[in-house]
Design goal:
The protein is globular and about 55 Å long. The longest helix has 19 residues. The termini are far apart. Helix 4 links the parallel strand 4 and strand 5. It is of the alpha+beta class. The protein contains 15 helices and 24 strands. It has three domains: 100 residues, Rossmann fold (3-Layer(aba) Sandwich); 68 residues, ATP-grasp fold, A domain (Dna Ligase, domain 1, 2-Layer Sandwich); 249 residues, D-amino Acid Aminotransferase, Chain A, domain 1 (2-Layer Sandwich). The strands form six sheets. Strands 10, 11, 12, 13, 14, 15, 16, 21 and 23 form a nine-stranded antiparallel sheet that branches. The protein has a five-stranded parallel sheet with strand order 3-2-1-4-5. Bound molecules: adenosine-5'-diphosphate. The site of adenosine-5'-diphosphate has 19 residues, from strand 7, strand 14 and strand 15.
Protein backbone atom coordinates (compact mmCIF):
# COMPACT_ATOMS: atom_id res chain seq x y z
CA UNK A 1 0.00 0.00 0.00
CA UNK A 2 1.45 3.34 -0.98
CA UNK A 3 1.83 6.20 1.52
CA UNK A 4 3.74 8.74 -0.56
CA UNK A 5 2.51 10.04 -3.92
CA UNK A 6 4.66 11.80 -6.49
CA UNK A 7 2.82 14.50 -8.43
CA UNK A 8 4.17 14.53 -11.98
CA UNK A 9 2.39 17.66 -13.14
CA UNK A 10 2.01 21.38 -12.51
CA UNK A 11 -0.58 24.12 -12.14
CA UNK A 12 -4.11 23.69 -10.91
CA UNK A 13 -4.23 19.91 -11.42
CA UNK A 14 -1.08 19.39 -9.33
CA UNK A 15 -2.76 21.31 -6.53
CA UNK A 16 -5.99 19.37 -6.99
CA UNK A 17 -4.10 16.06 -6.62
CA UNK A 18 -2.23 17.30 -3.52
CA UNK A 19 -5.56 18.23 -1.92
CA UNK A 20 -7.07 14.76 -2.37
CA UNK A 21 -3.85 13.12 -1.16
CA UNK A 22 -3.93 15.23 2.00
CA UNK A 23 -7.51 14.23 2.70
CA UNK A 24 -6.50 10.58 2.31
CA UNK A 25 -3.56 10.96 4.72
CA UNK A 26 -1.02 10.41 1.93
CA UNK A 27 2.13 12.49 1.80
CA UNK A 28 3.05 14.23 -1.45
CA UNK A 29 6.16 15.06 -3.41
CA UNK A 30 5.98 17.41 -6.35
CA UNK A 31 8.42 17.29 -9.24
CA UNK A 32 8.75 20.83 -10.60
CA UNK A 33 10.57 22.55 -13.44
CA UNK A 34 12.85 25.53 -12.82
CA UNK A 35 10.06 27.81 -14.10
CA UNK A 36 7.62 26.56 -11.46
CA UNK A 37 9.79 26.92 -8.36
CA UNK A 38 7.44 29.55 -6.83
CA UNK A 39 4.16 27.95 -7.82
CA UNK A 40 1.46 27.15 -5.29
CA UNK A 41 1.56 23.33 -5.59
CA UNK A 42 5.31 23.50 -4.95
CA UNK A 43 4.60 25.50 -1.79
CA UNK A 44 1.83 23.19 -0.61
CA UNK A 45 3.28 19.73 -1.29
CA UNK A 46 5.04 18.01 1.63
CA UNK A 47 8.25 17.65 -0.40
CA UNK A 48 9.52 19.09 -3.64
CA UNK A 49 12.22 18.15 -6.13
CA UNK A 50 13.37 19.89 -9.29
CA UNK A 51 13.05 17.67 -12.38
CA UNK A 52 14.68 19.95 -14.94
CA UNK A 53 14.64 23.23 -16.87
CA UNK A 54 11.53 25.09 -18.01
CA UNK A 55 10.83 23.42 -21.40
CA UNK A 56 8.42 20.52 -20.80
CA UNK A 57 10.54 18.21 -22.96
CA UNK A 58 13.33 18.59 -20.39
CA UNK A 59 11.15 18.38 -17.25
CA UNK A 60 7.48 17.32 -17.24
CA UNK A 61 8.01 15.01 -20.23
CA UNK A 62 11.44 13.81 -19.16
CA UNK A 63 10.79 10.20 -18.07
CA UNK A 64 14.31 9.34 -16.80
CA UNK A 65 14.39 12.53 -14.73
CA UNK A 66 10.93 11.91 -13.23
CA UNK A 67 11.55 8.24 -12.46
CA UNK A 68 14.89 9.22 -10.88
CA UNK A 69 13.12 11.84 -8.75
CA UNK A 70 10.49 9.29 -7.66
CA UNK A 71 13.23 6.89 -6.60
CA UNK A 72 15.27 9.54 -4.77
CA UNK A 73 12.24 10.75 -2.81
CA UNK A 74 11.04 7.17 -2.18
CA UNK A 75 7.52 7.86 -3.42
CA UNK A 76 5.61 4.63 -4.08
CA UNK A 77 3.02 5.96 -6.50
CA UNK A 78 2.78 8.65 -9.18
CA UNK A 79 -0.18 10.75 -10.28
CA UNK A 80 0.32 12.13 -13.81
CA UNK A 81 -2.65 14.58 -13.85
CA UNK A 82 -3.67 15.43 -17.44
CA UNK A 83 -1.44 16.20 -20.41
CA UNK A 84 2.33 15.56 -20.17
CA UNK A 85 2.82 11.84 -19.31
CA UNK A 86 -0.79 11.00 -18.40
CA UNK A 87 -1.28 8.87 -21.51
CA UNK A 88 2.27 7.69 -22.11
CA UNK A 89 2.40 3.91 -22.46
CA UNK A 90 6.16 4.07 -22.08
CA UNK A 91 5.89 5.90 -18.75
CA UNK A 92 3.25 3.48 -17.43
CA UNK A 93 5.45 0.52 -18.34
CA UNK A 94 8.59 1.99 -16.82
CA UNK A 95 6.68 2.73 -13.59
CA UNK A 96 5.46 -0.85 -13.51
CA UNK A 97 8.94 -2.25 -14.07
CA UNK A 98 10.27 0.02 -11.31
CA UNK A 99 7.61 -1.01 -8.77
CA UNK A 100 5.91 2.42 -8.82
CA UNK A 101 2.09 2.44 -8.81
CA UNK A 102 0.79 4.52 -11.71
CA UNK A 103 -2.41 6.28 -10.64
CA UNK A 104 -4.21 5.77 -13.90
CA UNK A 105 -5.29 3.02 -16.28
CA UNK A 106 -3.25 0.03 -17.47
CA UNK A 107 -0.93 0.39 -20.45
CA UNK A 108 -3.27 -1.92 -22.33
CA UNK A 109 -6.23 0.43 -21.64
CA UNK A 110 -4.19 3.34 -22.99
CA UNK A 111 -3.01 1.36 -25.99
CA UNK A 112 -6.57 0.49 -27.02
CA UNK A 113 -7.99 3.97 -26.55
CA UNK A 114 -4.95 6.22 -27.12
CA UNK A 115 -4.95 5.58 -30.85
CA UNK A 116 -8.20 7.22 -31.93
CA UNK A 117 -8.61 5.15 -35.09
CA UNK A 118 -8.13 1.93 -33.12
CA UNK A 119 -10.52 3.21 -30.43
CA UNK A 120 -13.17 3.76 -33.13
CA UNK A 121 -12.67 0.23 -34.43
CA UNK A 122 -12.83 -1.16 -30.90
CA UNK A 123 -16.04 0.74 -30.11
CA UNK A 124 -17.57 -0.45 -33.39
CA UNK A 125 -16.74 -4.05 -32.56
CA UNK A 126 -18.81 -3.63 -29.35
CA UNK A 127 -21.73 -2.26 -31.37
CA UNK A 128 -21.30 1.28 -30.12
CA UNK A 129 -22.30 3.71 -32.89
CA UNK A 130 -19.56 5.76 -34.54
CA UNK A 131 -19.84 8.47 -37.21
CA UNK A 132 -19.54 7.17 -40.78
CA UNK A 133 -15.84 7.08 -41.58
CA UNK A 134 -12.73 5.12 -42.45
CA UNK A 135 -10.00 4.16 -40.01
CA UNK A 136 -7.11 3.04 -42.24
CA UNK A 137 -4.21 5.39 -42.82
CA UNK A 138 -4.31 5.12 -46.64
CA UNK A 139 -4.77 8.25 -48.68
CA UNK A 140 -6.41 6.75 -51.78
CA UNK A 141 -8.81 4.53 -49.88
CA UNK A 142 -9.60 7.34 -47.46
CA UNK A 143 -10.47 9.60 -50.37
CA UNK A 144 -12.68 6.92 -51.92
CA UNK A 145 -14.51 6.54 -48.61
CA UNK A 146 -14.83 10.31 -48.22
CA UNK A 147 -16.56 10.44 -51.63
CA UNK A 148 -18.87 7.65 -50.58
CA UNK A 149 -19.90 9.19 -47.24
CA UNK A 150 -20.10 12.66 -48.78
CA UNK A 151 -18.39 15.96 -48.08
CA UNK A 152 -17.70 17.72 -45.78
CA UNK A 153 -15.52 15.23 -43.94
CA UNK A 154 -12.96 15.70 -41.20
CA UNK A 155 -9.43 14.31 -41.34
CA UNK A 156 -8.08 13.49 -37.88
CA UNK A 157 -4.73 12.41 -36.50
CA UNK A 158 -4.97 9.01 -34.79
CA UNK A 159 -2.59 10.25 -32.11
CA UNK A 160 -4.32 13.64 -31.89
CA UNK A 161 -5.55 15.43 -28.79
CA UNK A 162 -6.34 18.85 -27.38
CA UNK A 163 -8.25 19.76 -30.52
CA UNK A 164 -5.12 19.63 -32.66
CA UNK A 165 -4.33 17.62 -35.79
CA UNK A 166 -7.68 17.82 -37.55
CA UNK A 167 -9.03 19.53 -40.64
CA UNK A 168 -12.47 19.93 -42.10
CA UNK A 169 -12.48 19.13 -45.82
CA UNK A 170 -15.27 20.66 -47.84
CA UNK A 171 -14.54 19.34 -51.32
CA UNK A 172 -12.82 16.47 -53.13
CA UNK A 173 -10.36 18.93 -54.63
CA UNK A 174 -8.87 19.99 -51.29
CA UNK A 175 -8.72 16.49 -49.79
CA UNK A 176 -5.17 15.52 -50.81
CA UNK A 177 -3.71 18.89 -49.87
CA UNK A 178 -5.34 18.89 -46.43
CA UNK A 179 -4.40 15.23 -45.88
CA UNK A 180 -0.76 16.22 -46.37
CA UNK A 181 -1.07 19.27 -44.10
CA UNK A 182 -2.64 17.13 -41.40
CA UNK A 183 0.06 14.51 -41.76
CA UNK A 184 2.82 17.09 -41.31
CA UNK A 185 1.05 18.64 -38.33
CA UNK A 186 0.47 15.27 -36.70
CA UNK A 187 4.09 14.27 -37.18
CA UNK A 188 5.31 17.54 -35.68
CA UNK A 189 2.87 17.57 -32.74
CA UNK A 190 2.56 13.90 -31.83
CA UNK A 191 5.51 12.20 -33.50
CA UNK A 192 3.12 9.98 -35.50
CA UNK A 193 1.43 10.81 -38.77
CA UNK A 194 -1.36 8.22 -39.06
CA UNK A 195 -4.70 9.77 -40.07
CA UNK A 196 -8.33 8.68 -40.38
CA UNK A 197 -11.52 10.19 -41.74
CA UNK A 198 -15.01 10.88 -40.41
CA UNK A 199 -18.10 12.53 -41.82
CA UNK A 200 -18.12 16.12 -40.58
CA UNK A 201 -21.24 16.81 -38.50
CA UNK A 202 -22.44 20.38 -39.03
CA UNK A 203 -23.94 21.32 -35.67
CA UNK A 204 -23.17 18.57 -33.20
CA UNK A 205 -23.16 18.68 -29.43
CA UNK A 206 -20.10 17.37 -27.60
CA UNK A 207 -21.40 15.17 -24.81
CA UNK A 208 -19.14 13.06 -22.61
CA UNK A 209 -19.47 10.50 -19.85
CA UNK A 210 -17.04 10.44 -16.95
CA UNK A 211 -16.55 7.04 -15.37
CA UNK A 212 -14.58 5.27 -12.69
CA UNK A 213 -13.41 1.68 -12.88
CA UNK A 214 -11.74 -0.43 -10.20
CA UNK A 215 -9.42 -3.44 -10.47
CA UNK A 216 -12.29 -5.80 -9.62
CA UNK A 217 -14.19 -5.14 -12.84
CA UNK A 218 -16.70 -2.59 -11.45
CA UNK A 219 -17.57 0.41 -13.61
CA UNK A 220 -19.66 3.37 -12.48
CA UNK A 221 -20.70 6.07 -14.96
CA UNK A 222 -21.65 9.65 -14.08
CA UNK A 223 -24.10 12.27 -15.39
CA UNK A 224 -23.02 13.65 -18.76
CA UNK A 225 -21.05 16.81 -19.36
CA UNK A 226 -21.87 19.10 -22.26
CA UNK A 227 -18.63 20.52 -23.66
CA UNK A 228 -19.99 22.12 -26.82
CA UNK A 229 -18.77 25.64 -26.03
CA UNK A 230 -15.47 25.39 -27.88
CA UNK A 231 -13.00 27.49 -29.78
CA UNK A 232 -10.79 25.72 -32.31
CA UNK A 233 -12.07 22.36 -31.01
CA UNK A 234 -10.93 23.28 -27.50
CA UNK A 235 -13.38 23.41 -24.63
CA UNK A 236 -14.02 26.74 -22.93
CA UNK A 237 -17.14 26.08 -20.87
CA UNK A 238 -18.58 22.78 -19.67
CA UNK A 239 -21.81 22.01 -17.89
CA UNK A 240 -23.48 19.04 -16.26
CA UNK A 241 -26.08 17.81 -16.87
CA UNK A 242 -26.40 18.85 -20.51
CA UNK A 243 -29.32 21.20 -21.19
CA UNK A 244 -30.16 19.15 -24.29
CA UNK A 245 -29.83 15.55 -23.15
CA UNK A 246 -33.11 13.76 -22.49
CA UNK A 247 -33.48 10.87 -20.04
CA UNK A 248 -33.62 8.26 -22.86
CA UNK A 249 -30.47 9.70 -24.47
CA UNK A 250 -28.70 9.70 -21.08
CA UNK A 251 -29.60 6.04 -20.67
CA UNK A 252 -28.04 5.25 -24.05
CA UNK A 253 -24.88 7.21 -23.23
CA UNK A 254 -24.53 5.39 -19.90
CA UNK A 255 -25.02 2.06 -21.64
CA UNK A 256 -22.41 2.70 -24.35
CA UNK A 257 -19.82 4.22 -22.00
CA UNK A 258 -20.07 1.44 -19.45
CA UNK A 259 -20.07 -1.24 -22.14
CA UNK A 260 -16.87 0.13 -23.63
CA UNK A 261 -15.16 0.49 -20.24
CA UNK A 262 -16.22 -2.99 -19.13
CA UNK A 263 -15.17 -4.68 -22.35
CA UNK A 264 -11.68 -3.18 -22.26
CA UNK A 265 -11.33 -3.84 -18.50
CA UNK A 266 -10.89 -0.15 -17.75
CA UNK A 267 -9.39 0.61 -14.33
CA UNK A 268 -9.27 4.26 -13.36
CA UNK A 269 -10.96 7.59 -14.01
CA UNK A 270 -11.72 8.03 -17.69
CA UNK A 271 -14.11 9.72 -20.08
CA UNK A 272 -15.96 8.43 -23.11
CA UNK A 273 -16.64 11.25 -25.56
CA UNK A 274 -19.55 11.40 -28.00
CA UNK A 275 -20.92 13.79 -30.57
CA UNK A 276 -24.71 14.00 -30.80
CA UNK A 277 -26.20 15.03 -34.15
CA UNK A 278 -29.18 17.35 -34.57
CA UNK A 279 -31.55 14.41 -34.07
CA UNK A 280 -29.78 13.63 -30.80
CA UNK A 281 -28.19 10.41 -32.04
CA UNK A 282 -24.97 9.83 -30.11
CA UNK A 283 -21.75 8.68 -31.78
CA UNK A 284 -18.56 7.64 -30.00
CA UNK A 285 -15.56 9.81 -30.93
CA UNK A 286 -12.85 8.92 -28.44
CA UNK A 287 -11.97 7.96 -24.89
CA UNK A 288 -9.68 10.01 -22.64
CA UNK A 289 -7.79 7.66 -20.35
CA UNK A 290 -7.04 10.19 -17.62
CA UNK A 291 -8.62 12.68 -15.24
CA UNK A 292 -9.86 15.64 -17.27
CA UNK A 293 -9.82 19.40 -16.75
CA UNK A 294 -13.61 19.46 -16.44
CA UNK A 295 -13.95 16.77 -13.73
CA UNK A 296 -15.08 19.26 -11.00
CA UNK A 297 -18.56 19.76 -12.47
CA UNK A 298 -19.13 16.01 -12.22
CA UNK A 299 -17.90 16.09 -8.64
CA UNK A 300 -20.42 18.80 -7.75
CA UNK A 301 -23.32 17.11 -9.48
CA UNK A 302 -22.59 13.61 -8.17
CA UNK A 303 -21.08 14.53 -4.79
CA UNK A 304 -18.14 12.18 -5.49
CA UNK A 305 -14.48 13.19 -5.38
CA UNK A 306 -13.10 11.83 -8.67
CA UNK A 307 -9.42 12.28 -7.83
CA UNK A 308 -9.77 10.64 -4.43
CA UNK A 309 -11.43 7.58 -5.92
CA UNK A 310 -8.95 7.48 -8.77
CA UNK A 311 -6.22 7.19 -6.13
CA UNK A 312 -8.13 4.59 -4.09
CA UNK A 313 -8.80 2.31 -7.06
CA UNK A 314 -5.12 2.52 -8.04
CA UNK A 315 -4.37 1.22 -4.53
CA UNK A 316 -6.62 -1.76 -5.26
CA UNK A 317 -9.74 -0.62 -3.37
CA UNK A 318 -13.16 -1.60 -4.62
CA UNK A 319 -15.38 1.35 -5.59
CA UNK A 320 -17.44 2.04 -2.45
CA UNK A 321 -20.57 2.96 -4.44
CA UNK A 322 -22.48 1.42 -7.32
CA UNK A 323 -24.48 2.74 -10.25
CA UNK A 324 -27.70 3.02 -8.26
CA UNK A 325 -26.01 5.46 -5.85
CA UNK A 326 -25.36 7.94 -8.67
CA UNK A 327 -27.99 10.62 -9.07
CA UNK A 328 -28.04 14.12 -10.56
CA UNK A 329 -27.93 16.56 -7.67
CA UNK A 330 -28.35 20.01 -9.17
CA UNK A 331 -26.38 21.66 -11.97
CA UNK A 332 -22.75 22.73 -12.36
CA UNK A 333 -20.91 24.86 -14.93
CA UNK A 334 -17.19 25.47 -15.37
CA UNK A 335 -15.47 28.41 -17.09
CA UNK A 336 -11.89 27.82 -18.14
CA UNK A 337 -10.09 31.08 -17.49
CA UNK A 338 -7.00 31.28 -19.70
CA UNK A 339 -4.24 33.87 -19.63
CA UNK A 340 -5.02 34.83 -23.22
CA UNK A 341 -6.19 38.02 -24.83
CA UNK A 342 -9.53 37.47 -26.60
CA UNK A 343 -9.24 40.89 -28.25
CA UNK A 344 -5.90 39.89 -29.84
CA UNK A 345 -6.86 36.55 -31.31
CA UNK A 346 -6.37 34.76 -27.98
CA UNK A 347 -2.67 35.49 -27.85
CA UNK A 348 -1.11 33.97 -24.69
CA UNK A 349 -0.56 36.56 -22.00
CA UNK A 350 1.98 35.33 -19.45
CA UNK A 351 3.28 37.71 -16.77
CA UNK A 352 2.95 38.84 -13.19
CA UNK A 353 -0.42 38.85 -11.41
CA UNK A 354 -0.55 42.32 -9.91
CA UNK A 355 -3.91 42.02 -8.26
CA UNK A 356 -6.16 39.03 -7.61
CA UNK A 357 -9.61 39.02 -6.09
CA UNK A 358 -11.25 35.61 -6.12
CA UNK A 359 -15.00 35.13 -6.06
CA UNK A 360 -16.69 33.04 -3.39
CA UNK A 361 -19.99 32.61 -1.63
CA UNK A 362 -22.65 29.95 -2.10
CA UNK A 363 -22.08 27.48 -4.90
CA UNK A 364 -18.73 28.84 -6.13
CA UNK A 365 -15.57 26.74 -6.39
CA UNK A 366 -12.25 28.04 -7.69
CA UNK A 367 -9.49 25.64 -8.72
CA UNK A 368 -6.33 27.59 -9.37
CA UNK A 369 -2.62 27.71 -8.70
CA UNK A 370 -2.26 31.47 -9.16
CA UNK A 371 -1.96 34.09 -6.39
CA UNK A 372 -1.24 37.80 -6.17
CA UNK A 373 2.41 38.38 -7.06
CA UNK A 374 2.71 35.06 -8.95
CA UNK A 375 4.31 35.14 -12.39
CA UNK A 376 2.66 32.97 -15.04
CA UNK A 377 5.53 31.38 -17.00
CA UNK A 378 5.33 31.46 -20.80
CA UNK A 379 6.22 27.80 -21.33
CA UNK A 380 3.00 25.93 -20.62
CA UNK A 381 -0.73 25.75 -21.19
CA UNK A 382 -2.53 29.05 -20.64
CA UNK A 383 -5.22 27.67 -18.26
CA UNK A 384 -4.82 29.62 -15.02
CA UNK A 385 -8.09 29.20 -13.20
CA UNK A 386 -11.24 27.12 -13.29
CA UNK A 387 -14.30 28.97 -12.09
CA UNK A 388 -17.04 26.53 -11.18
CA UNK A 389 -20.62 27.42 -10.23
CA UNK A 390 -23.11 25.04 -8.70
CA UNK A 391 -26.84 25.50 -8.18
CA UNK A 392 -30.03 23.60 -7.49
CA UNK A 393 -30.79 23.95 -11.18
CA UNK A 394 -29.29 25.50 -14.32
CA UNK A 395 -30.82 28.91 -13.69
CA UNK A 396 -29.29 29.16 -10.22
CA UNK A 397 -25.89 27.94 -11.49
CA UNK A 398 -25.98 30.61 -14.22
CA UNK A 399 -26.90 33.42 -11.77
CA UNK A 400 -24.06 32.36 -9.52
CA UNK A 401 -21.59 32.23 -12.41
CA UNK A 402 -22.67 35.69 -13.59
CA UNK A 403 -22.11 37.03 -10.07
CA UNK A 404 -18.73 35.27 -9.75
CA UNK A 405 -17.60 36.66 -13.13
CA UNK A 406 -18.46 40.15 -11.84
CA UNK A 407 -16.54 39.55 -8.60
CA UNK A 408 -13.33 38.11 -10.06
CA UNK A 409 -10.46 40.56 -10.64
CA UNK A 410 -7.22 39.49 -12.25
CA UNK A 411 -4.84 42.32 -13.07
CA UNK A 412 -1.44 42.21 -14.76
CA UNK A 413 -2.30 39.72 -17.52
CA UNK A 414 -5.10 39.54 -20.08
CA UNK A 415 -7.63 36.76 -19.47
CA UNK A 416 -10.70 35.22 -21.07
CA UNK A 417 -12.96 36.61 -18.28
CA UNK A 418 -14.48 39.34 -20.54
CA UNK A 419 -15.45 36.70 -23.12
CA UNK A 420 -17.04 34.49 -20.44
CA UNK A 421 -19.09 37.49 -19.29
CA UNK A 422 -20.41 38.02 -22.81
CA UNK A 423 -21.24 34.34 -23.23
CA UNK A 424 -23.12 34.32 -19.92
CA UNK A 425 -25.28 37.16 -21.17
CA UNK A 426 -26.01 35.72 -24.58
CA UNK A 427 -29.54 34.43 -25.24
CA UNK A 428 -28.30 31.37 -27.16
CA UNK A 429 -26.07 30.23 -24.33
CA UNK A 430 -28.77 31.00 -21.77
CA UNK A 431 -31.31 28.98 -23.77
CA UNK A 432 -29.00 25.96 -23.67
CA UNK A 433 -29.55 25.41 -27.40
CA UNK A 434 -25.97 25.66 -28.59
CA UNK A 435 -23.76 23.37 -30.66
CA UNK A 436 -19.98 23.10 -31.09
CA UNK A 437 -20.33 25.64 -33.91
CA UNK A 438 -21.93 28.38 -31.84
CA UNK A 439 -18.96 30.07 -30.16
CA UNK A 440 -16.93 30.33 -33.39
CA UNK A 441 -19.93 31.90 -35.13
CA UNK A 442 -20.47 34.27 -32.21
CA UNK A 443 -16.80 35.37 -32.25
CA UNK A 444 -16.89 35.85 -36.01
CA UNK A 445 -20.05 37.98 -35.79
CA UNK A 446 -18.50 40.11 -33.02
CA UNK A 447 -15.45 40.71 -35.23
CA UNK A 448 -17.71 41.66 -38.09
CA UNK A 449 -19.53 44.12 -35.84
CA UNK A 450 -16.26 45.66 -34.66
CA UNK A 451 -15.11 46.12 -38.26
CA UNK A 452 -18.35 47.89 -39.13
CA UNK A 453 -18.08 50.19 -36.12
CA UNK A 454 -14.45 50.99 -37.02
P1 LIG B 1 -9.32 15.77 -29.51
O1 LIG B 1 -8.85 14.38 -29.25
O2 LIG B 1 -8.29 16.63 -30.13
O3 LIG B 1 -10.00 16.39 -28.33
P2 LIG B 1 -11.91 14.99 -30.64
O4 LIG B 1 -11.96 13.87 -31.60
O5 LIG B 1 -12.31 14.70 -29.23
O6 LIG B 1 -10.43 15.63 -30.65
O7 LIG B 1 -12.77 16.20 -31.18
C1 LIG B 1 -12.70 17.49 -30.62
C2 LIG B 1 -13.78 18.36 -31.19
O8 LIG B 1 -13.67 18.45 -32.62
C3 LIG B 1 -15.20 17.87 -30.96
O9 LIG B 1 -15.71 18.21 -29.70
C4 LIG B 1 -15.94 18.57 -32.10
O10 LIG B 1 -16.19 19.91 -31.80
C5 LIG B 1 -14.94 18.51 -33.23
N1 LIG B 1 -15.17 17.29 -34.04
C6 LIG B 1 -14.55 16.10 -33.93
N2 LIG B 1 -15.03 15.20 -34.81
C7 LIG B 1 -15.98 15.84 -35.50
C8 LIG B 1 -16.89 15.45 -36.56
N3 LIG B 1 -16.85 14.22 -37.09
N4 LIG B 1 -17.74 16.38 -37.02
C9 LIG B 1 -17.79 17.64 -36.51
N5 LIG B 1 -16.99 18.06 -35.53
C10 LIG B 1 -16.09 17.18 -35.02
Amino acid sequence: MFKKVFVANRGEIALRIIRSCKELGLSTVIGFSEADRDSLPVQLADEKICIGPAPASESYLNIPSIVGAIEITKAQAVHPGYGFLAESIQFVEICKASGITFIGPTSNNIQLMGDKALARKTAKSYKIPVIAGYEENMLNDALAHARKIGFPVIIKASAGGGGRGMRKVNTIEEFVKLWNTCQEEAKASFGEDALYVEKFLERPKHIEIQLLGDKKGNIVVFPERDCSIQRRHQKLIEESPSPSVSAPLRKKLYKYASRLAKRIGYQSAGTVEFLADSDNNPYFIEMNTRIQVEHPITELVSGIDMVKHQILVARGDKLPFSQKDITIRGHAIECRINAEDPSRNFMPSPGRIKKLILPGGPGIRVDTHIYEGYTIPPYYDSLILKLIAYGMNRTEAIYRMQRALEEIQIEGVATTVPLHKRIFNHPVFLSGRYSTKWLENFLASEQEQEKKEA
